[in-house]
Structure formats: C-alpha cells, structure tokens
C-alpha cells in the first residue's frame, strides 16, 4: 500500500505519571465516602451533644415489616432550619419513640446532619461497596500488569536532531524502515537518550545529533534500528 505506513504502538496510552495519577484518583473516589463518614463519626464521638429530638413520625417499612423508621426534628436552638431527619432504629427504640414522642439523639451542634439516634441501626452497605470497589481496582491493576506488553526496550540510531513536541506517546514506522518516536525523556546520556512510551522504552543513540530537550520533557526523534 503506497504512502506512509503508521503503527501507533503506544499512542493514547498514559505515561507512568498519568497512570499513577489515575490510580490515586480511583482510590480516592472509591474510599472518600467511607473516609468522610468515618471523619464525621469521629467528630460526633468527640464533640457531639446529647439531646432529645421531637418525634415527627414513626413507621414500619413495609407496614408489617421489620424496618423501624423514626422521623424527628431538633430544637430550634440546635437546628434553626428545623429540618426533619430520620433514622432506622431497633424495635425497642422505636417503641420508646412512639410512646414518648421524643427520641434521644447525639448530634454535632455545627452540623445537624451528623447524628446518631438511640438504637440506630448502622448499615454495612457503604463498607461493602467500598470493599468491592477496592477489590475490583486491585483486580484491574493485576490484569493490567499481567497482560500489558513486556516493555522490551527498542534501540534506534538517530538520523535527525531531537525535537521538543506536544505531550504524547507514539511509535510510528515509516516505509523506509525508520521510526518516529514521541515520548517523555526518561534518561539523558552523553551520546544517547531514553524515551518512556508508557508500556515500553526506546533508547536512541544520538550518533552526533543534538538533544536540547530536558529530562521528563516530551521529545520527538527519528531513528533507524
């Protein structure tokens, strides 16, 4: 086929820094809700105040089910907005709230949305979701490192000076057998440089050609095997 034959072996793949950033971002996104809950739980234990909240409604879900829900409102001094909150509680706490019209609650004065009612049932679903998410992330990382290319180092001899380029990773083979390589400068030697393409590295012997691109900067160079 006439014209230039192009093979993008690494184009579009993130370099190591981007990969580590994406991994860190995924870890934060997966674990942030539980970490957020744990932080406010610690604050509630340390700085919370105990109060009696007025019961607005009590109901079972479904009507003959085993989930007991109590809706309540704090005093205006603690919650000027007079929001209504709810808690799933055990049957004993539900019966007391239904009979007395009040329920004991520990809450953060500066954040009424953080509270724990008498007999409140703490769900494990957020922890399960977080654990499953972490396990899936570990599995994805394991499969990636198992099936990714082995990362053998390609060796080329430059036939032109090294040039600065926009950040990207690519390896293109031309009709004449030469390669055009774009990647991040991973190593600089007196007569050679190494470009990091994410899934492999390419060592380019300069063969008298110049390199003005610095360490960890994107570079483009043409070379032959």
In a nutshell, what does this entry contain?
This protein has helices spanning 16-47, 91-100, 125-147; strands at 49-61, 67-73, 84-89, 102-108, 111-117, 154-158, 163-164, 170-173, 179-188, 192-196, 201-205, 218-224. It has 225 residues and is α+β, with helices and mostly antiparallel strands. Among the domains are: 48-120, OB fold (Dihydrolipoamide Acetyltransferase, E2P), CATH 2.40.50; 152-224, no CATH class.
Report on this structure.
29% of the residues lie in helices and 35% in strands. It is α+β, with helices and mostly antiparallel strands and 225 residues long. Helix 1 runs antiparallel to helix 3 (125-147). Among the domains are: 48-120, OB fold (Dihydrolipoamide Acetyltransferase, E2P) (Beta Barrel), CATH 2.40.50; 152-224, no CATH class. The protein has helices spanning 16-47, 91-100, 125-147, and strands spanning 49-61, 67-73, 84-89, 102-108, 111-117, 154-158, 163-164, 170-173, 179-188, 192-196, 201-205, 218-224. Strand 9 (179-188) and strand 10 form a beta hairpin. It has a 5-stranded antiparallel beta sheet with strand order 3-2-1-4-5. Strands 6-11-10-9-12 form a 5-stranded mixed beta barrel.
């Amino acid at each position: 086929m006439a014209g230039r034959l192009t093979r993008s072996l690494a184009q579009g793949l993130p370099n190591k820094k981007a990969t580590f950033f994406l991994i860190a971002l995924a870890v934060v996104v997966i674990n942030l809700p539980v970490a957020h809950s744990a932080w406010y739980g610690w604050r509630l234990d340390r700085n919370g105040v105990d109060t009696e909240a007025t019961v607005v409604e009590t109901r079972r879900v479904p009507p003959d089910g085993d989930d007991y829900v109590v809706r309540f409102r704090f005093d205006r001094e603690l919650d000027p907005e007079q929001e209504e909150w709810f808690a799933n509680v055990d049957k004993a706490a539900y019966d007391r709230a239904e009979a007395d019209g009040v329920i004991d609650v520990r809450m953060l004065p500066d954040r009424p949305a953080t509270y724990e009612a008498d007999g409140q049932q703490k769900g494990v679903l957020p922890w399960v979701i977080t654990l499953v998410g972490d396990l899936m992330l570990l599995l994805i990382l394991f499969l990636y490192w198992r099936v990714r290319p082995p990362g053998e180092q390609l060796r080329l001899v430059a036939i032109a000076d090294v040039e600065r380029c926009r950040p990207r990773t690519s390896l293109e083979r031309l009709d004449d057998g030469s390669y055009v390589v774009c990647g991040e400068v991973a190593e600089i030697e007196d007569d050679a440089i190494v470009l990091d393409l994410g899934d492999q590295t390419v060592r380019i012997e300069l063969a008298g050609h110049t390199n003005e691109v610095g360490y960890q900067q994107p570079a483009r160079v043409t070379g032959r095997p």
